[in-house]
Design brief:
The chain is mostly helical. It contains 11 helices and no strands.
Amino acid sequence: MVWDEIAAKTGEQTVLTGAYLVLIVVATLIAGVGVLLDQPILIVGAMVVGPEFGPLAALCVALLRRTPHRILCSVQALVVGFLTAMVATVLSTWALTAAKLVNREMLLAERPLTEFIWRPDALSWVVGLLAGVAGMLSLTSKKSGSLVGVLISVTTVPAAANVAVAVAYGCGTRRAVRRSSW
């Protein structure tokens, strides 16, 4: 009974909508600026806006229940959403650079407040796992999912933004990490 309810809840969140695309693009744009400015408050703001918990949870449930259509819909929402958001972030980074509001050196500079994004470690995996547990618990216990989305986004939206900004500046993420750790 609980699984049917969870499958129904998460199934609604697998549909690729305009609202989902706008939210993931906006979240990734905010995170891109947050990465460049080394501002955790912008990263948290991006995580609040990020809508990707729904498709991620739906994917987990669909994999567990072996429902190919839901798996495909979830993967489509995630792939199309993140690709769209990352392309928009690359373009916005170029536009902000042309306007002289940001620059490549900001990406390569030390960023101690947001280091967990561009230099993930074992604790990043632990946080991601715990966030997933909290997310599934919120679905099964009918608790509000708003904070759960924030937790899940720790490992998705900010990371996607960091990669997009690195691509915009022609820096491989390894190169940016190596350079910034000098």
